[in-house]
Amino acid sequence: MKVSHVSEADHGLVTAAVAAAEAHTSGEIVTVIAGQSNDYDDVALVWASVLAFLAMSVIALFPEFYQGLYDRLTGGWGHELTANQWLGTVIAIGVLKWIGVWLILLWRPLRIALTPRAILAARVRVRAVDLFKVGAEAKTLGRTGVLLYVSLREHRADIVADDAIAAKVAPAVWGDAMEALIEQVRQGKPGAGMAEAVRRMGIVLAEHFPKGEDNPNELPDRLIEI
Question: Which end of the chain is more exposed for a tag (fewer CB within 10 A), N or C?
Fold first, then answer.
């Protein structure tokens, strides 16, 4: 069963906004919303490895304390560990620590919370570019496709434009649309945010790429969920 990220009303808002924007420009706007852009397995791996290493390092730095703890846990009845046995115990603790952290980080919200913001932004950008290449790049006669991508769990969005648009519109120009989008998404209104962003994108596109006489609708107006 496919999970929907937004309501049918949101779909209607965004689709109508795209149609209205494209009525005044030869640009073609594609809108995509995703629950998440990446699994961040490598981030979980790094956290598990770092914390396991730290746990083993602490035991190695304070062996007397942990050997005393071992004696207290065994009530003084445990045999004295040899150097190899102690090393094996330290490694076993490190492995258990690694597994424990990995299992905890199976909870995706925590995994994302522990991922640096720069990595989140980079992964969302990569996903947006990949989707743009598949669904919008060079799909219009005038290379005037542009993708608006929203990734909900990362709280990130991106705009990727085809060659003709990128040559005339600097990335910073889309800042107004992105600001409007983020403001609405933070209020729990992703559909309204995307619709407003599309409206502002349409204003920019109409300025640089006004609608011509022969301008077929080459890309879908509907909001795409993945």
Answer: N
Sheet containing 156-161, strands listed edge to edge, beginning at the edge strand earlier in sequence: 156-161, 145-151, 28-34, 223-225
No. of helices (H) and no. of strands (E), the chain: 9, 4
Percent of the chain past pLDDT 70, that is, above it, reads 90
What value, to the nearest 5°, has the Cα angle with vertex 150 and ends 173 and 219? Answer: 80
Determine the longest span between alpha carbons in the chain, in angstroms: 92
| Tens digit of each residue's pLDDT (9 = 90 or more) over 84-106 | 776 787 888 899 999 999 999 99
Entry field: residues in the chain = 226
pLDDT in tens, 173-188: 999 999 999 889 888 8
CA–CA gap between residue 138 and residue 146 (Å, rounded): 10
Domain boundaries, the chain: 8-38+117-225, 41-112
